[in-house]
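Hi C.,

You asked whether I'd gotten around to modeling the 100-residue construct. I have! Everything is below, sequence then structure, no commentary in between.
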Amino acid sequence: MKENLNLNRWEEKAPKFFRKLLHGGDEEFQTPIPENLLLLKSIQQARQEWIEAVQNFDQADNNELIDYFIYRMKACQIRYNYLLKVAKEMGLRGELYEAK
């Protein structure tokens, strides 16, 4: 009984690494992030990547880079539009313009 109390105190103070080893995973120690927040973050990230692709295209100086950034801009645009569509279907609304 006393050993269990000591073990429990040790587990409380142990670094996450040791708790992960002891329990075989850290799923129970992670706070789940809601799906809608993940989607909003993905939308912000996709928008930022699209903006960066446009900026890089504007600065490209050889044909191979121009071709690459045209491809990249289109890919980013498609991803961004898809994520917006998913958010709309889920009924999500949020501040999408602060891409960080």
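If it helps when you're writing up: Residues 1-30 form one domain.

Thanks,
B.
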